[in-house]
């Protein structure tokens, strides 16, 4: 059950990283492409493990699977950051997090040939998770078509990243598999250089660079996000294949901290962390969180 504790730790760190993302996306790093570039390029830090024998010379198909897993994580981050920029933090994250395990479930069934399936109790947990996520996003929010695209894109890519990562870890140990996927993340980051805004932020004139250079807060957020990604990857490597969607579903831990932190931060930063605070809205979110936690408890106990 160590994979369960690793997953909980990763989502706790991701909650803090998500709020830092919200702060940064309202300021200098307001372009999700620039932000995703820096997130992905920092994955190259994993290459420091290469002198320690972290490269395993994977077969061509396994190599491509690892590259796809790492790239999907970065492209998913771009869609996620775009959605986070358009929606309040405590709603964008639950919507995406509620869809990721659904996509993950069907992708796991597809890649396993229908062998790895959830039982009836786990399906009940999925139902509660979905219901809780949609209750959190209720209260009359209208999602525009361009917002929906970012939400679906982030959900599908994040789910694909985890499912593909498990395929890698079924054949490689943790460190070689992690380095292989970091290579894919770095390649995805480099692809953002096709954007004029990214090139201007990285190689442009002083004024352009000031508009996109990361602040110390960015590196704090990335340190937490990187540690969260590593612990989540460790959880994926240890968990049975059928439980990969469960790791996605455990994002309810992140929802609780996102909602709690946003509620208190809104007192000091009302424009940035705008949340509906009237009793009915708060009660609905609390009830939704209870449903999410019960769903997660079903997975944990089962």
What are the main properties of this structure?
302 residues, mainly alpha, globular
Short description:
With 302 residues, the chain is mainly α. It contains 13 helices and no strands.
List the helices and strands and how they pair.
Elements: H1 2-25, H2 32-41, H3 60-86, H4 89-111, H5 120-136, H6 145-169, H7 174-191, H8 196-203, H9 206-212, H10 216-238, H11 244-249, H12 252-268, H13 279-301
Helix pairs in contact: 1-10, 1-12, 2-3, 2-7, 3-4, 3-6, 3-7, 4-5, 4-6, 4-12, 5-13, 6-10, 8-9, 12-13
What do you see in this structure?
- By secondary structure, this protein is mostly helical.
- It has one domain.
- The protein contains 13 helices and no strands.
- Helix 4 runs antiparallel to helix 5 and helix 5 runs antiparallel to helix 13.
- About 2% of the residues have low confidence.
């Amino acid at each position: 059950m160590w994979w369960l504790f690793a997953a909980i730790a990763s989502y706790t760190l991701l909650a803090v990283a998500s709020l830092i993302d919200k702060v940064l996306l309202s300021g200098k790093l307001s372009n999700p492409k620039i932000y995703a570039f820096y997130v992905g390029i920092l994955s190259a830090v994993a290459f420091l493990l290469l002198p320690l024998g972290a490269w395993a010379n994977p077969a061509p198909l396994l190599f491509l699977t690892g590259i796809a897993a790492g790239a999907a994580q970065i492209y998913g981050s771009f869609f996620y950051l775009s959605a986070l920029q358009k929606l309040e933090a405590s709603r964008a994250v639950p919507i995406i997090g509620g869809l990721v395990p659904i996509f993950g479930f069907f992708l796991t069934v597809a890649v396993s040939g229908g062998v790895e399936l959830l039982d009836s109790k786990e399906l009940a947990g999925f139902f509660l998770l979905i219901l809780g996520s949609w209750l959190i996003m209720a209260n009359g929010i209208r999602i525009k078509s361009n917002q929906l695209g970012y939400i679906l894109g982030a959900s599908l890519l994040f789910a694909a990243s985890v499912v593909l990562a498990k395929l890698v870890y079924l054949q490689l140990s943790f460190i070689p598999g992690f380095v292989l996927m970091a290579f894919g993340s770095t390649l995805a980051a480099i692809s953002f250089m096709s954007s004029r805004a990214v090139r201007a932020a990285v190689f442009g004139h002083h004024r352009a660079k000031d508009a996109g250079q990361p602040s110390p807060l960015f590196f704090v957020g990335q340190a937490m996000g990187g540690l969260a990604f590593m612990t989540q990857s460790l959880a994926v490597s240890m968990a049975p294949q059928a439980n990969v969607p469960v790791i996605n579903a455990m994002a309810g831990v992140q929802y609780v901290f996102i909602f709690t932190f946003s509620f208190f931060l809104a007192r000091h930063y009302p424009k940035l962390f705008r949340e509906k605070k009237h009793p009915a809205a708060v009660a609905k979110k609390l009830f939704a969180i209870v449903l999410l936690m019960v769903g997660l408890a079903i997975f944990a106990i089962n």
